[in-house]
Amino acid sequence: MESQQIKGENYTVGYEPETTTVNFQGSLRLSGMAEYEPIVNLLEDVTAQQPVTITLNLQELEFLNSSGISMLSKFVIGARKKKTIQIVVKGSNGIPWQGKSLKNLQRLMPSLKLELE
How far is CA 43 from CA 46, 55, 83, 94, 100, in A? Predict the structure, then answer.
């Protein structure tokens, strides 16, 4: 799978195939799951490759609304069902919403590796 990028008004979501990392930057304030569809499709494409590890780098994601958190939760639950993929989530202690919300992803998938810096 090649590198991909989804750009919106205030955000960028990019995929790096060398490291199987999906980088999130900016503010994701999309309204509803329909608007998150391109990002969901990107995450599903990455998962379909059956990599050993998928890293979600959220260190530069300043804001994620409830629809976005729901999208990430559904992705984590889907990956958990596969049982073969390790999810690593990189977050930032400097961004208030991340500590609490990202820990909830660990509840959904106990094997998820959460790295807050």
Answer: 5, 11, 16, 25, 22
Domains along the sequence of the chain with CATH: 4-116 (3.30.750.24)
Q: Which two tokens stand for residue 95?
A: 């961004």
Q: 83: buried, middle or exposed (CB in 10 Å: 19+, 13-18, 0-12)?
A: exposed
- Read off the pLDDT of residues 24-57 as tens digits, 9 standing for 90 and up: 999 999 999 999 999 999 999 999 999 999 999 9
Q: What pLDDT is recorded for position 35? A: 96
Angle at 61 between CA 56 and CA 66, to 5 degrees: 90
